[in-house]
Design a protein that fits this description.
heterodimer; A: about 375 residues; alpha+beta; Rossmann fold; OB fold (Dihydrolipoamide Acetyltransferase, E2P); 2 domains; elongated; disordered N terminus; B: about 280 residues; mainly alpha; MetI-like fold; about 75% helix; about 0% strand; globular
Chain lengths: ~375, ~280
């Protein structure tokens, strides 16, 4: 099964000697089932990407012990968190896990310092030492001046730092962050993201960051795991996921044209939604015959013309009609209907020159070398 | 509860800004009568108070004894209510089990039960020949009826539901996420309860305790039925008022005045501090 390959191979999971987080578990909640099998090495930052309701938060809750797995096991280094078949379940308060909640969940009745000192106190450290530990963390996070404040008096970025300091003060072996930046406004987000990256780099255990922001995922993580409908649909480095998305969701997220199709000749792929694309060369793993393939084309690789291009090296030329224009930072993303439809990135100048507007008939062209073909991992 | 009501009204400026600001007579007239009905008796109490003889009446040792007994028993009943009532409120707010509705109804029953009936029920349960009382007497030599401990039992029976429903409401609306967060930080269930749950419901806990204390202080029916009316051991202020009314009406008025002052003080304290408390917006 190719799904095995997508998940990073079974050998890693079957070994008991691998350090880090090793998960092979399911959670059944009514009709929803989460079924995951993956590992995260010490010091590695894994991004968990997926649409709402994909089970991202359920996954974090399961790792933290707030939700019990229905079957399977969870292990961090040589500490078994849960092994349902063996009747092992370590409750959340006894797991060395730091969980940063989406809305931080700072204790409103405790000062910033007492929030951070909470975990050391819970672990039996006497008040003065716990306060000293909290102070160290607050200094490290540039929060020493806010020690006596209540969480209600902090800005969003400060609250996020306090929450992270509080989680790290517990000296966890595993760090879980649930949408760490989603509660912040856009400007604060930029600052906090850079800072978060720095703090995470100092953490030596495995880290999981749940997000639905692809930029956040690319900036903060070493590897991505895409979760859809309770299942892992893709794993890989942010760059490889962005280049070869495995599902429409990921493709939309990273802004790549993704087509489903089957091979229909030496170098041609018949697309499921109409049209044919020619690729320069097939990936060696691409099977011949009716095996489902995925075709990725970057929006910047597509060229728009106002009339049929006569003498061109592009192997793919087809007509379409503009259905929408969306300005991005330095260019305009043009939505074109056709067989196949495509997102095309052009400069604002080009929009003016070609008088691109909704309803305008255009021709599209793509060089065969820009057409990336790979097997559909869902099959 | 009261605060919420007031702030809702304040949050509707449209009401006062509307051109038809005058209230209709069919509302205002009964409202005025109702207000008068509630206030006039208290005014009468103030008017008829034997102000000149007040110091003498109140310095009577029997009065002071009754007052002290009242305060002590109400406080003891409140403490017992806190120890038993807060966990009971937690169970009602947090656990889901068959018969939960029935349990909640039973807990609030003393709120609506005539106190005399409560006292009689207590007598049948914990009286010397009561179904539990006889064993208390036989095995431990404990006698509750017609003792100071009996007063505390009667007051607790009547007043604890006030604490339970107040705290239950607060626990129900408390943010469970904070308790989860504490758990992931290594807090045991007891630590979560002590350092997160209780402080978060603190304002409601205080309000409930004060309501409970006030109810215990004014308790009459269950006390006189279960504990009797013995000066020095079971005669609390309300009982003393009742007694004095037959022998020395002026003293009864003076005693009532003291209870009125205590009641007003409680109300002022609740308004100013506790009902406005709370951590969130």
């Amino acid at each position: 099964m190719t799904t095995r390959d997508v998940r990073g191979g079974p050998s890693l999971l079957e070994s008991d000697t691998v350090d880090g987080l090793v998960v092979d578990a399911t959670v059944q909640r009514g009709p929803f089932q989460l079924e995951v099998e993956f590992a995260v090495r010490p010091g590695e930052i894994l991004g968990v990407l997926g649409p709402n309701g994909a089970g991202k938060t359920t996954l974090l809750r399961m790792l933290a012990g707030l939700t019990a797995p229905t079957t399977g096991s969870i292990r961090l280094d040589d500490l078994m968190f849960a092994d349902i078949e063996m009747g092992v379940f370590v409750p959340p308060e006894r797991r060395p896990v730091g969980l940063l909640f989406q809305n931080y969940r700072l204790f409103p009745h405790l000062s910033v310092r007492d929030n951070v000192a909470f975990s050391p106190r819970c672990h039996g450290i006497e008040r003065r030492s716990a306060n000293a530990i909290a102070h160290d963390w607050l200094v490290r996070f540039g929060l020493a001046d806010y020690a006596k404040r209540k969480p209600g008096e902090l800005s969003g970025g400060q609250a996020q730092r306090v929450a992270l300091a509080r989680a790290l003060a517990a000296n966890p072996g595993l760090l879980l962050l649930d949408e760490p930046l989603s509660a912040l406004d856009a400007r604060t987000r930029l600052e906090v993201r850079a800072e978060l990256r720095r703090h995470l780099a100092e953490f030596t255990g495995p880290t999981l960051i749940v997000t639905h922001d692809p930029l956040e995922a690319i900036m903060l993580t070493d590897r991505l795991l895409v979760l859809e409908d309770g299942r892992i649909v893709q794993q890989g480095t942010p760059a490889s996921v962005a280049r070869r998305p495995a599902t429409n969701y990921v493709a939309r997220l990273v802004g790549v044209n993704l087509y489903h199709g089957v091979r229909s000749g030496a170098t041609a792929i018949a697309l499921a939604d109409g049209g044919t694309l020619v690729a320069a060369g097939f990936d060696e793993t691409s099977p011949a015959g009716p095996a489902p393939l995925l075709v990725a084309v970057r929006p910047s690789a597509v060229v728009l013309h106002t009339s049929r291009p006569e003498h061109t090296s592009a192997r793919n030329v087809w007509p379409g009609a503009v259905t929408g224009l969306e300005p991005l930072a330095d260019r305009v993303r043009v939505e074109v209907a056709g067989a196949p439809g495509a997102l095309v990135d052009v400069t604002p100048d080009a929009v003016a020159d070609l008088r691109l507007a909704e309803g305008r008939s255009v021709w599209l062209s793509v060089k065969a070398t820009e057409v990336d073909v790979y097997p559909d991992p869902a099959f | 509860m009261w605060r919420a009501g007031r702030s809702t009204r304040r949050a509707q400026p449209a009401l006062s800004d509307s051109p038809r600001r005058g209230a209709p007579l069919f509302i205002v007239a009964p409202a005025a009568i109702g207000l008068a009905f509630l206030v006039l008796p208290l005014v009468a109490l103030l008017v008829r108070a034997p102000w000149s003889g007040l110091p003498e009446l109140l310095s009577d040792s029997q009065v002071l004894t009754a007052l002290r007994l009242s305060l002590e028993c109400a406080t003891a009943a409140t403490i017992v209510s806190l120890i038993l009532g807060v966990p009971l409120a937690w169970v009602l707010a947090r656990l889901r089990f068959p018969g939960l509705g029935l349990v909640r109804a039973l807990v609030t029953l003393p709120l609506v039960l005539p106190p005399v009936v409560g006292g009689l029920a207590l007598l049948l349960a914990f009286g010397r020949n009561g179904i539990f009382g006889r064993y208390l007497d036989d095995w431990f030599g404990i006698t509750l009826p017609f003792t100071t401990a009996g007063v505390i039992v009667a007051e607790t029976f009547v007043a604890m539901p006030f604490l339970v429903i107040t705290v239950e409401g607060a626990l129900r609306s408390a943010d469970l996420g904070l308790e989860e967060a504490a758990t992931t930080l290594g807090a045991s269930r007891f630590t979560v309860f002590r350092r997160i749950t209780l402080p978060l419901v603190g304002p409601s806990l205080l309000a409930g305790a004060v309501l409970c204390w006030a109810r215990a202080l004014g308790e009459f029916g269950a006390t006189i039925t279960f504990a009797g009316n013995f000066p020095g051991t079971t005669q609390t202020m309300p009982l003393a008022v009742y007694n004095a009314l037959e022998t020395d009406p002026e003293a009864a008025v003076a005693l009532s005045l003291v209870l009125l002052v205590v009641a007003v003080a409680i109300l002022a304290a609740l308004r100013d501090r506790w009902l406005r408390g709370g951590w969130g917006p």
